[in-house]
Amino acid sequence: MDGINPIEIRESLHPSANRDSVFKAGESQGKSGSFFFFSKDRKFIIKTMNDGEMSIFMESLVDYYSHLKTHRNSLMARIYGIFTVKMEDIVPVNLLLMANTI
Fold this sequence. Notes:
By secondary structure, this protein is of the alpha+beta class. The chain contains three helices and four strands. The chain has helices at residues 6-12, 15-24, 51-70, and strands spanning 36-38, 44-49, 79-87, 90-99. The chain has a four-stranded antiparallel beta sheet.
């Protein structure tokens, strides 16, 4: 979708290029309590999601994708991935990767 490929995402989100943005994410806390930050090249936004938000999105995923395939010029946010990051001794974190449309 949208011609975005895994290499472009990997380069845009490379840890060394985004280190400062990740640590500043706490300063960008949204109304919902979620944290978000822009990739270094500002092509993407990463947003944390609680389990409830993740569940709602997963239930809507088929309809979301169908809508975007049918309405290529839709103004809906383009979501490129949802991930759960799990590390030892740390509570898992759900992340949403979406296009920055600004």
